Amino acid sequence: MNVGKTLFAQIMEFVPWTSFGRIVDRYGDNSGVRRFPPLSA
């Protein structure tokens, strides 16, 4: 059961958005993400 903030939310309290943007640009936002085809009903 979730009773608090997620780990990502807690980390983002300490990391400025400008730094986060630089990290995303450096390492790629969706690079290496696998895509799955949608399931048909």
- Percent in helix: 40-55%
Low-confidence stretches: none
Q: How would you characterize the largest beta sheet? A: none
- Percentage of β-strand residues: under 5%
Overall pLDDT metric: 81
Shape: flat
Q: What is the string of SSEs from the N terminus onward?
A: HH
Q: Strand tally, please?
A: 0
Q: Which value, in Å, is the CA radius of gyration?
A: 15 Å
How widely separated are the two ends?
30 Å
Number of helices: 2
* Structural class determined from secondary elements: mainly alpha
Task: Produce the secondary structure layout.
Elements: H1 7-12, H2 17-27
Describe the structure.
- This protein is mainly α and 41 residues long.
- Helix content is 41%, strand content 0%.
- It has two helices and no strands.
- The chain has helices spanning 7-12, 17-27.
- The longest helix is centred in the middle third of the chain and has 11 residues, at 17-27.
- The chain is flat.
- The two termini are 30 Å apart.
- The mean pLDDT is 81.
